[in-house]
Description:
Layout: H1 14-27, H2 31-83, H3 91-115, H4 118-130, H5 134-137, H6 141-185, H7 187-202, H8 206-221, H9 225-240, H10 246-275, H11 277-287
Amino acid sequence: MNKRAVEQTGLIPRSIIRTFERFLKQLLPGAEMLVIQEFRISRYQVIVSVRCFLTLLIVPILVNFFSKTFLITPLVEFIWNNDSHEIFLNTYQQKRALRELYSYQDKLYFELLVNIDNNKKNTASNRFLEFPHEIIQIKSAELEKNYQKKIFEIAIKFNKESIEAISNLFADFFSFFSFTLLFIFMKPQIIILKSFLAESLYSLSDTTKSFLLILGTDLLVGFHSPHGWEVFLESFLRHLGLPENSEFMSLFVATFPVFLDTVFKYWIFRSLNKISPSTVATYHNMIE
């Protein structure tokens, strides 16, 4: 005969039975030693959890920093500057460089018109409106020098950005690899960490847990979250030197938060409703 999935409730609530059992344990002769042992176990759990968490956090960061600074970046910079004649990794970098150059060019033209003598200002303005190519011929040598200097600065800037993006890709791979190794070799400590985090989370009040749920959902899938996802995705793509495709970003922002919202609601319905029904009830009361 199959076991019942849900245990039947007796005449006496189980919470009262557990409280009575704890009270009986305190009356036993070895109750003090039992309390001391529980305290030692709790202290050991906290120490191991904190140490494991710091290790999982700090080691990948250190691996990323040292591998990128002393190994990857010098190697990529040497290969990129000697074996490659490219400056940009993709066309989106080139478009950003052109926008920056055009903006500086407009600034130079504006400064030129402002600095012209009062007697020549109206004439220069009319010539600029009628013959745009003639305004280039009257540029001073200093402005021309600044323009060439700006082109050189933009080339250096985006060349470094390309090297940085390639270095980030390999450094992130090393960090992920080290993080995976830590998960494999620190499996017992991670189990203790998960137990400690679950115990700490469930020990919170229902109101606090509901507040954290609302805060997390509003940050990730709230009505104001699309702009945050766009900034995050743009920074992530630029970090790895990937093309910043606006169509892909719009599609991602339109679908991924919806997927997260669906998964979150399913988790509340499937798991949290069984673990802590009072938290779910408080959560629904707070959002209504």
